[in-house]
Each structure stands twice: as C-alpha cells, then as structure tokens.
Amino acid sequence: MPMNSVNTNVGAMVALQNLNKTNTDLNTTQNRINTGLKVGSAKDNGAIWAIAQNQRSNSGALNAVKESLSRSISTVDVALSAGESVSDLLLQMKEKSLAASDTTLDAASRTALNDDFKALRDQITKVVTNAVFNGANMITATTPTTVAALASSDGVNKITVAAQNLALGGGNVTIAATASIGTQTTAAAMIATINTSIANVSAALSKLGTGSKALSSHLEFVGKLQDSIDAGVGNLVDADLAKESAKLQSLQTKQQLGIQALSIANQSSGTILSLFR
Fold first, then answer.
1. Which of 28, 163, 172, 277 has the least CB density, counted as fewest CB within 10 Å?
2. What's the number of CA atoms in the CB half-sphere (13 Å) around residue 255?
3. DSSP label at residue 147
4. What is the pTM of this model?
5. How many CB atoms lie within 10 A of CB 231?
6. Which of 166, 147, 157 is nearest to 210 (CA)?
7. Is the CA virtual torsion 100, 102, 103, 104 positive or negative?
8. Farthest CA pair distance, the chain
9. 29-75, pLDDT tens digit by residue?
C-alpha cells in the first residue's frame, strides 16, 4: 500500500511526466503539420537528414547541368540553321555554275549569272559570321566553338559536339572567297568543287544534328533523374499529413485526459486532512 505524504505526491509526478510527454509529442506533430516534414532538421533524425541534404545537393547541381545542356542545344541549333542555309546557298550556286557552263551562253547572260554567283558566295560569309549564340559560333573559321556541355552533377562528365568550319575556303566549303564563274571554263570546274562542298556540308550538318539530338536526349534524362531524386527526398523527409492529422486528434484528447489526471492527483493530498478531523 503506498504511503500517504504531503511532501511527495507520486501520482502527480507520474501524471506530470505523462502530460509532458504528450505535450512534446503534440508539439512534434503540430510542427510536422505546419512544415509538411517529418524530418525538418538534423535534430529530428540526423542520418536521414544528412542523406536528404546530400540528395538535395545533387538535385540542385542538376539545375546547372540542365542550364548548360539548354545553352549547348541552342548553340548547336543556331549552327545547324546556319549550316542548312549554307547548304541551300550551295545548291543555288551549283545551279548558276551549271547554267554558266553552257558554251552557247552570251556575254550578258554570263555576267548576270556570275554576279548572282558572287552574291550567293558572299551570303555564305554573312551566314557563317552571324551564326552566333551567346557569343559562341560553331561554324566560323576563326576560333570556332566546340560545345562541351555538363552531363553530370559532379561536373566530371561532359557531352562534346565538335565545331564544323563552314566558312569559304575551309575544310568543308572548298570554294574560295574570291571564286567566280566569269568564264565557261571556270564555271564548268566550279560544279565539281560545289558538289564536294555540298557533300562535306551535309556530313558536317549530320554531325551537328547527332550532337543536338544527344544533348536533347540527355536533357530529358536529367529532368527525369532530378524528379526521381526529389521524389526520393520526399519519401525520406515528408510527413504523412493524413496520419499526422489523426495523431493530432488523439494527442489533443490525451492531453486533456492528462490535465484531468494531474488535477485528480494534485487533490489526493487533500484527503490526508480528513485523518485529523
């Protein structure tokens, strides 16, 4: 049988301990509901918080990867558009050269064709010079830009798309910057030169197109990877709000009962007075 004492109220002590525990649990549940997180700081669960922080770091780094890939795609696509224009201009130049190779052509017509040819030739230079995105030009003869886009969150892996020189007199467009078809002989010789240039430009554009496709595919993959990482972090730290809401109701009821239990325990010492009446 427990001893009756006015100095030590064991029942009240137990009731207070239980009430404090309930209040602590209630504060934890309310904080989870307010923040939506079951692990909001290292104090909640140090190991899980550390894992989540590392994954958040990877996810944040992937934003930089996506930006790098997007810039690279735009740079390559500008080069592709310009390259396609160069190819179209070469086709027109071939047509002019073929027409000028006709031995029965009169001088006025040959001059007109040569003027058209030179205008198309000079347009190639303009197209190549202006194929710039964010300061990068992949098809110029002067310091062409080779794209090296970030491919991983640690910056180690990269996707490289090589520059393709499409300037006049370069490795692909073998037509000289001063080329003309002023005579039947030069016109006939120019046809073969243009055919070679067309084949070279087509091959160069194929490489650029393959590079652009690789960049776009990797950008799509990085987006999915980032979503998966974010979902994984959510699984680690997000609170189940339906569960927490139910728990909140239970704890609030338990808190009220705890207050009543403490009140009853505090009144028990008053019964000792009846022993002295």
1. 277
2. 13
3. E
4. 0.77
5. 11
6. 147
7. negative
8. 144
9. 777 776 777 787 788 789 988 998 899 899 999 999 999 999 999 99
